[in-house]
Amino acid sequence: MKPPPNPHLVLAVALLLPGVGQVMNRQPMRGLIFLFFIILLGAFTLKTAAPDVSFVGKMSGGLFVWAMAALDAYKTARIRAAVWAHGRG
Contact at 8 Å (CB) between 87 and 13? Predict the structure, then answer.
């Protein structure tokens, strides 16, 4: 059986490319769902934020989901690595 990817590598990739951490964890549909909600909430907060709000504030909905997606990918990778290591030992 192939070992799961390194959780730190999954986290780094998930921080750079939203949804790809889930793909590395063999959960591509979950990655697409996260990507959809990143775009949806980013667009929503962009349209509804006041004109004087910073760019980060305007994209805060998407950035929040991106952070949750990265955390989810890392947590899943850590669990899979622990289960795989336990099964070998």
Answer: no
What is d(CA 82, CA 73) in angstroms, rounded to the nearest whole number? 14
pLDDT at 89: 59
Length of the chain: 89
Q: Which two tokens stand for residue 32?
A: 């697409």
Cα 15 versus chain centre, distance:
7
Confidence of residue 2 (pLDDT cuts 50, 70, 90): confident
pTM metric for this prediction: 0.90
Tokens of 36: 């959809």
The 10 Å Cβ neighbour count of residue 36 is 12
For residues 65 and 34, is the Cβ–Cβ distance under 8 A? yes
